[in-house]
Design goal:
mainly alpha; Multidrug-efflux Transporter Regulator, Chain: A, Domain 2; 4 helices
Length: 145
Amino acid sequence: MLEDISPVFVISVAAQLSGLHPQTLRAYDKLGLVSPDRAPGRGRRYSSRDISQLREVQRLSQEHGVNLAGIKRILELENQVTALQQRLGELAHELELVHSTAARRVAEAHASHRRDLVPLRQATVAVVWPSQPFGVRSDVAQFGE
């Protein structure tokens, strides 16, 4: 079974499948709207995905009146959205792995705790120091005064 991105169709077949003239396909390639792969002899080879994209270009142009510059921008943004969705999926998977690793490590830490120790509540102790050293009185005259 062929993949969606396998370049198999020559320009005449791609034109028939998309309902466009071969010269239109060449113009779209030149403008960067749909850029097929090239065969070793430099001939264009279109994939099923390219054919779908050609049909979308035609639909946007004919049904919605979008000019070619607008269509190019729409296609660029759609490609960017697709790439960002793919990256988001990758990051979600990575985050899931991090969460599962963290949960496993927490469980391992809890399993390693000693169960024979009993925690004690510590009492608060206050130490009060006198303002004068012991044995010295402020109301008694000292030697040499």
